[in-house]
Amino acid sequence: MKKLQFKTNIHAPVAKVYDTMLGLKDKATYEAWAAEFNPTSTFEGNWEKGTKILFIGTDENGEKGGMVSEIAENIPHKFVSIRSCGILKGDTEITEGEEVEEWTGGLENYTFEEHDGLTTVTVDMDTTEGYADYFNETYPKALSKLKSIIES
């Protein structure tokens, strides 16, 4: 797995950044910044530690797909860790086999730190070599979108 890191500074209290990023008060706030990855991005489940969460979107053919994940840790307003458990193809969760072995166990961690009304969001993630360029291009756009949603 390849490790990537992305950061942004947002002029807002940490609670607002955390709630907006995770879509806790309104799922549409999560969907708005995650749309940079896929215009139909959403999630099913919740952000409680130990729970399953599905990150879903539809492809250009209208097929549902995404990631099957687990919330490995959630310390409100401080840290969220998402562990990859497999992929979703249509309504089928694939959690074993060649297709998912390179993703399984990978983490996507969000760290939130506030200093004087400025919140720094740090994303540390594991990815495959084949997706590194995609995330290096798309994650900064997604964080920029998150920043504009919160600061507007």
UniProtKB/TrEMBL annotation:
This is Activator of Hsp90 ATPase homolog 1-like protein. InterPro entries: START-like_dom_sf (IPR023393). It comes from Sphingobacterium wenxiniae.
